[in-house]
Sequence to fold (674 residues):
Amino acid sequence: MKLCILGFGAVGRGVAKVISKKRDEMKDKYGLDIKITAVTDSLGAAICNEGLDPELLLEIKEKNGKVSSYPQYGINNISNMEVLDKANYDCLIEVTPTDIEDGEPAKTHILKAITDKKEVVTSNKGPLALSFKELATAAKENGVQLKYEASVGGAMPILNFAHDTLPSCNIESIFGILNGTTNYILSRMAKEGSTYEQILKESQEMGIAETNPAQDVEGTDAACKVVILANSIMGKDVNLKDVDVVGISKITQEAISLAKNEGYLIKLIGEVSDDALQVSPRLVREGSPFAVDGTLNVATLKTDLAEDVTVVGKGAGSIETASAILSDIISIYKTKK
Amino acid sequence: MKLCILGFGAVGRGVAKVISKKRDEMKDKYGLDIKITAVTDSLGAAICNEGLDPELLLEIKEKNGKVSSYPQYGINNISNMEVLDKANYDCLIEVTPTDIEDGEPAKTHILKAITDKKEVVTSNKGPLALSFKELATAAKENGVQLKYEASVGGAMPILNFAHDTLPSCNIESIFGILNGTTNYILSRMAKEGSTYEQILKESQEMGIAETNPAQDVEGTDAACKVVILANSIMGKDVNLKDVDVVGISKITQEAISLAKNEGYLIKLIGEVSDDALQVSPRLVREGSPFAVDGTLNVATLKTDLAEDVTVVGKGAGSIETASAILSDIISIYKTKK
Fold:
């Protein structure tokens, strides 16, 4: 399977690392031979139909800051769309930066690949949260697969889990802690008794929260994931503007202490149900599967037969997210074999 | 798919209830037409190649205490082995009582069905914990499937989860809370400050612990599940006698309080790793996925790429366990289609 990787930030580099580490194992275990035939970043591309060396790609990116320095096969000033035309590939790995205003340019990349009858794997929440139906329909019409496990919960395998492990059950609703940064902040507020502002500042210094933390703390990131879960698992047709969103920036230490005295914690919870499509701070009971701390993500499926079934995993991390992308690639390969 | 259900206790009746509830849905969703052609209990059987009515089976069992009162098709004093010869079925549902001394008579039932080229789904831990390799080899040699999701963690889908959702990862070890009764007792000891003896007595009165609680509190039940996980997921060849087992009956309130003061809880943890095959009380951190209370079961897979991935679910319950059995039936049907 030949991959074209658009974007060579943390996730794109994670994919290269994971492929380098696992290539022989994938061949032995599944008969899957993975080649990276094209990679782009904001400055250019490297394209080679025989396959680029993932270790050399990582080394060159680290040293020169651009993949177009790749010997012999580097190309400066080429657009992603030109690369999609020029490269010989079976599956697009769309891992350019997420935009939640219009989902671009990722949406255009994905639609182009689909129209060209290529499979697509992405971690990019923007196009999925804004144009899920359009993308899913295009994939179906063109007879290709569009997979996006990494877009929700990083290495927490919620989509495959919901689709594959409980065939006897109907999923009636989904509740989740879908953003690691806010879970980290709320957990530390509960443990240390410090204010939101203090913990946010420290989280930014530690690189856990971003310099502009709005998308995390105002709940937008979690809302994108709510949309993806609603469309993918619950068969709804919704997008970002349909979600009621309240973030955590107004949570006081007093509210957390009051909850704690009664055996509860405050968590930022995403809900997908027939009654609600929302992200908001809510009380969860200590000792429940939602009482996890740190940057962990959690999702509970409420089912008709098995009651609540919950999955917990790391919500972020370059290698962890890349592992979800590789799982999607393997899954596409298995169904095509 | 024609089912022969051996055993009509809580789990067997759960299977009948779930099939009654979901039969039309399974037909619409998967094209799977399920018929129960034989059911047994300790007093006899009901056999009908055209299919028995699950609701009538449940009604008769409730009213008369035996399935052999089923009109026209009831048979008194027939052994399970005779039923396996007489019935027309595709898949054995083995849900007779668990025996952990020699795994009988379930083991003989399962081997007979396998030799007769029938698929097998079971929740019966005994034969799996004592003779896993023998049963798995027999199934392989006869070209049939042997599935047992319900034998570990009831409605917590740990086996399907480990096999299906993380194809990019190697599973390096498994840690789990695999017994609901002990988790309930330890959780209440931590919350209420009462002694082990007090809480055990109350749990017995509430029907959560059995009159003879030894298999749960001494760790044997959890050890059976450790063996199944080790063989099924980690490819080991071990059985019950290979597990180091320490139960919870010697856990004092003082130990729990000491742990609590440092932010820890004491849980009965099963471990499968290259270093250990064991069940023992261990400290888990508050705020970790293991800090769940009540009768919940938890299992964490330590992976090479995705770090820790955890699944939580109800460890027992008639309908919940039956839902895992139905999921196995659907999975067998899908691979044969």
